[in-house]
Amino acid sequence: MSWIFAASADDPAASPALGAVPERAATGSLVLLLDPSLAFVMPGLPLLHLAEAGAVPRAFSLALLEDGRLHLVHRRGEARTRLAVSLSELADAAAARIVYSWDLAAGRHVLSVEDLATGAARLSRGTGPVGLSRAEMLDACIDRRRAFGHPAMLSLAIGTAPATVCQAGGVHAGTPVETAAGIVPVAQVRAGDAVRTGDGRLRRVVAVTAERSPAIGPLRAVRLLAPYFGRSADIIVDPRQKVVVAGPDVEYLFDCEAVLADAQALVDGTTAVREDDDPFAEWYGLVFAEHDTFAAGGCLLDGRFVGRIAGAPDILAHSALAGLAAEGALPVHPARRHRVLAPWETTALAEMRRRRRAPVAA
Question: Is residue 362 in some structural domain?
């Protein structure tokens, strides 16, 4: 995936320039993060509107209407296309990820919405895409009033390839993973390799997913600091990556030995912090035949969970698991190895540890 631009509402400075973008990108993606609650307060006000009159008038508009659906309309000259997908189920979500991808040669485009916290997603597909032009990309990147004119907008990114949907966390390429051959960076792990799991056993990896995506706004990377998490070195993860947390406080609060918590909920400025170095990151995930956790630098991390996406073929076809599904090798994961904490539960755990002057750590 080649990303060319990313900016967030709280720090809208552009990253890489648009010099290599063709006049009309044959494939591409536009990815937005937004606050659904603010979007529903002002239905009808475009989240993003790029328009210009001229010899060949053009207009690209993305708006949430009163019917609770997100509507996309794109026009250039006589060419016109539209897509719509329901956003009603995500009205109470803290943040939603909107992905619009197109492929001119294949003659199709996709509009999807997903809850960043739960992964719940909806998707709409259509034919006859117009495709964003260089001028439209420049409008979005240079004119910040257009990009962040709506208060619900949290971030915006543009790429020159279709983006995957239902991203589910991941770890940085250099994360040390314990394998049968020794400790290696996760980027060097291959399907069939045996990896040390949470119970100390070696289990074979079915697949390794790799997704390069914007790491801005709510999706800024999280650094889990040593020695609280990784025993010898810091570990950098996607904020949605689930981390195994254990100890007496977990047993007291939740009556179990270990739980899973989103990395973003563990950020406390002492044991885990946000990263701001790179607006893009490549995240790796390990898929096991039966869902499991794996050892990474002394920390236990959640493996890639298939879950409900296996029963949603339209969404699955546009995810990082599409290749595995096409081969008929997609595993069934009815449940995770440990219970996942709700955000308020993670807050309660963090507060208990803070009062004890102990870090929130596995």
Answer: no
The answer to whether the predicted template modeling score (pTM) of the entire model surpasses 0.85 is: yes
* Same domain, residue pair 176 and 289: yes
Q: How many domains does the chain have?
A: 2
Residues 211 and 87 in one domain: no
Domain boundary among 134, 159, 184: 159
Domain containing 30 equals 3-159
Answer with the one of 159, 193, 217 that is the final residue of a domain.
159
Q: How far apart are CA 344 and CA 20, in angstroms?
A: 45
201 three-class SS? coil
Beta bridge partners of residue 50, listed in sequence order: 60
Per the CB < 8 A criterion, the answer to whether 83 and 124 are in contact is yes
183 shares a domain with 286: yes
- Domain co-membership, 138 together with 193: no
Inter-residue contact 7 to 141 (CB < 8 Å): yes
Instruction: Write out the chain's pLDDT in tens, 362 residues.
Output: 588 888 888 765 555 444 466 677 789 999 999 999 888 888 888 888 888 777 678 888 999 998 889 999 999 888 899 999 998 888 888 889 999 999 999 999 999 999 988 888 899 999 999 888 887 887 777 676 777 888 898 999 998 888 888 888 899 999 999 999 999 999 999 999 999 999 899 999 999 999 998 898 889 999 998 887 767 789 999 999 999 998 888 999 999 999 999 999 888 888 889 987 788 899 999 999 999 999 998 899 999 999 888 888 888 888 898 888 888 888 989 899 999 998 889 888 888 877 765 555 55
CA angle 158, 170, 190 (to 5 degrees): 110
Query: In a 3-state reduction of DSSP, which class is residue 344?
Result: helix
CATH code of 228's domain: 2.170.16.10
